[in-house]
Protein 1
Amino acid sequence: MLRVSKVVTFLLCLGPLGLLAWRAYHGNLGANPIEKITHATGDWTLRFLLLTLSITPLRRILAIPALIKFRRMLGLYAFFYGFLHFMTYVWLDKFFDISEMLADIAKRKFITIGLTAFVLLIPLAITSTSGWIRRLGGKRWQRLHRLIYLSAIAGVIHYLWLVKADIRKPLEYGIILTFLLLYRVFLWLGPSNGKRWGITLPGRTQASVE
Amino acid sequence: MLIKKPDDIRSSEITAQSVYLDRRRFIAQLGLAGAAAGIGLQQVVTPPEACAEQQIPNLTKSPLSTSEKVTPMTDVTHYNNYYEFSTDKEGPAELAKNFRTQPWSVTIDGAVAKKQKWDIDSILKFAPSEERIYRHRCVEGWSIVVPWVGFSLSELIKRAEPLGKAKYLEFTTILDPRQMPGQDRNVLQWPYVEGLRMDEAMHPLALLCFGMYGQTLPNQDGAPLRIVVPWKYGFKSAKAIVRIKFTEKQPINTWNLSAPNEYGFYSNVNPNVDHPRWSQKTERRLGEFFKRKTLMFNGYDQVANLYAGMDLKKNF
């Protein structure tokens, strides 16, 4: 059952990429296909980051601890779409012009913070294996993986700093992220607060080696 | 005053000669037509949707046109900024579908001999319609080549009889939130206002525009009347204009009001002055894979003398 739902989830997560490829193949990406690809991969990076961050609250509130089994996959998909997003910039926007990219990173705040968001995900992707969890030890691994909070915050700011005037969409991501982070704040505040919010304190290591 | 009158048929009454089909439907249509012809059923094939655009008769070709490849109409009409309808570039095409462009009049006021209100149909008769194929560069870094229809803005200015103290023109877009859903949100301050210096507005390249691709303007592209200032970033070319005011003081244009450090009054296309958040050195021409180098004044060097001695880094 778990295996089946994991395969299904895996395929579902490939959906956005599949749809993009399908539309590209049919010349159906609109007047500015490269912009569409850039936006779609960026959007999905943020969505997967938020999905990854909702696993902990959801499994506790809904009392489905097994949800933890999907967290690694969702996190890796966030990295995957982030990598595609990064590569559209490197390839389709800058055409591998290193000096232009360096100038961009130095001068453009939204590029700087976007790159930060992506780079922060790299160590998390590398250490996502069971082997690395063992090697680092649950506690240290967990501490390292809190970098996802910074990455998600940086990702939302990246979007906010990029739009011209209409901040509605980055704001939506920001609001969801705020709730997900606030949940953790309440979690850390203590058992009495925690219980009221349907939270049980992390007795076992939440790193949860699968 | 001698005003050339090509004909007395209201342009709004001229029957559409063709209907606009989007590319994919058009191709499907071809296939269908072929099949139908094969079985003798041509009459089955009817145009899927007739749009409001009408052919503009007696177009003269302008020597000011570029010979560059024209961007397909579908791209131009389905990818543009028109925040009065939507901040999404694919939104205006659908949301502007029922926008009413008749009746329409333009108020001329400020430093002019006398305040006037001109009906759109009388404005269109000020001068013969020309087709002008211009490069159009958006401040966001994409560009298109559009066969606009209109005549020099100077034709209107002359007839407005501006006073000597008139130094600027202020263009105001219609304010009508019931028709323009984007105006319900305070993304920008409405109504949209743009401005030009008198000598810029009098330059022959500055176009008073009411059509494109040989037809009247589609609603999402600023119907029924807009300006096109090809050496400036696209947002300077105000759409759906209802008022032209002649002023002594430099108008405050909407984007400048929204973000003064990002969008200036002049907003000339300039690869050497970056937007604070992104480079303006290159642009993506719609339909092209590689980016192009952006040209000074969008390649319209003939306007350079308007800015002789000005620091264009300061006056961005």
Note: Chain A is about 80% helix and 0% strand.
Protein 2
Amino acid sequence: MAYFDLDDVLCDGSEVPCRFLHTVPGLGFLDGRPGGTVTAGTTLRLPLWLAQILAVVVAGGEGEEGEGEGEEGEDNTPFVEMQVPGALGPKVLAAVRADPVALDVHAVQPHFYALALRWCALYADQDLARQVAGLLLQRAQEINGFAVAGGAQGGNTDSSNGASITASSPFLATLDEWEKGVYRDAQRARRDASRWGR
Amino acid sequence: MSLPSHLQETFSPEEVQFVVENQKIKIFPRITTNRRRNGRTGDASGDDSNQWKMLTVDGSVLDNMVAMRSTEVALWLALLLKQQSKCNIIIPGWLTVKSLDAMLQFEKRNKDRFGTLPWDWQVLSEILFKQAADDFSDPIHELRNRIQDLKEIRQMKVLQGLKFMNESHLQLDNLGLMEINEMRPFIVDIMDKLREFHAAVNVQSAVDDDAGDEDMSMGTGIYSDRDISASSRTH
Amino acid sequence: MYGELANKLVIEAKRTEQLNNRSNQDTKLPVYNDELVRNILKEVSQLKRNIEFFAEQQEIAAMNGTNTDSKIMKCQYFVNRLCLERNKRCLLAYQKLRADLMDSISWENNGIEMMGSFSNEDNSNLTHQEQDYLKEYSELITEMKSGELADIDLSGPLVPPKEVFIDVRVLKDAGEIQTEYGVFNLIKDSQFFVRQSDVERLIQQGFLQKI
């Protein structure tokens, strides 16, 4: 969650479907209609950086944190209600259960784990956390396997072997951005180790 | 920043070797050294004592060397002396065909445990094979094969153990520094992310949950105790 | 939609980061995307005007005591404010990556020594401010290396030495060097047995070769 972290910035830009609970004029630009009004009940895809604040800020309250300090006992609803993004929806979760290694995580969402982590933190979603952690662990075995193989193979050649392995294995093309980093780190350490023995 | 990112994640094998070279090892010196200050050397090799002066050690160990009386010196120094044919290295007891065979038996019998090899077994054997080959009584190639077998069988167990990684702990009893070092980036990355997920949904109930997690790590090749996630970040 | 340009900028930065991760070569910086940055800044000024307007409206509404309006205006205010913050973060992340890469360049080139050899083509990718930054950061490194830390070669090789003494061959005449063990006259093609730490720098600079 570093402010300058590019992956974090990009993850923050992933879109989440949001239902407006209030009618707000002047926000039409969110929907490609500059100057227009967004009416209550409309569902729009908003970037996470916008959605996650609008979903917790209470329309009637003063404070920025949700939790009703509704002055004068009035409206405690937030501006929008976030809906589960497709990447974390039932279809994807079914695929996660079916075959973690076969799932093209990168196609589902390039920052899948980062997004899931946000969601878990926002909604204390134990179930989701457990499923994603399981997915992570199973895929990790596979990633490590490739790293070990790639490391041994890369002992001779100097660089860029990482790229050729990625090209040759469909699995490695399905890694999300974080997983790619794991693979890179693991493969590098394995390669250095196998080089040392020679 | 000045240290490349991959060296922040784990040690390079060369760094591991450097650390290992600081370990003590037993040698048989072939020469006798005397402090020059104490007067003339009775030894004929007056030239040698000039050379000793070039070594930047604090002195005592070198000065006490007596030919064919075993003594302990740092490995790097032993290798230097060896190079100049001024000593024989005493091969450690575990590095014989007999001991390695016994170790292999142990590794095969115990699916969920690692044999008690010294923490520097991989590095030390490699160095000695290369630089002190004539000090072994067993044939090097046979020893080499067994070291390779040990490496492979232990590696298999490590891979089995990784299936049971969790967010809190990992036991690495009897694994060597090189074995740990080459998987450290992977394990740290994975455990760190598991911990993040755990923390994200267990803000208040973190204490209660700890009890429930213990079973995850039992009966695996790698288990509990040292928090490598914490230690490797700060090395 | 606000923030889209900024997103483009971050994607560009991400690509730069990936390219530098992938290659073992020296750190490279692409051209500063001046146009995109300027357009994002334009958006930022627009958002700033919006925010000021909504803040004003809110005050007026508060005086009149009309609550529903203030709620709506708060939402409008928030949305604009968040768009502005997002743009700011993207711009900073872009610049931070470039700053980090410039730091790497400085270290790779051993501090200030690079500035002379740094050709115009190479730093045309940098803005004026970035060139200043690079220069000053390099100076900081040099200063640190010659100050209290002068005894440690901070930009020296990162591979631990295997031997204290090594054989070296002289590739280029380098004159006399003074070491603890006497004076060596480095004449091309001659060989010496020297302490590695005494000649580390000469090896790096290509005067000597380890054999």
Note: Chain A has two domains: 1-83, 86-198.
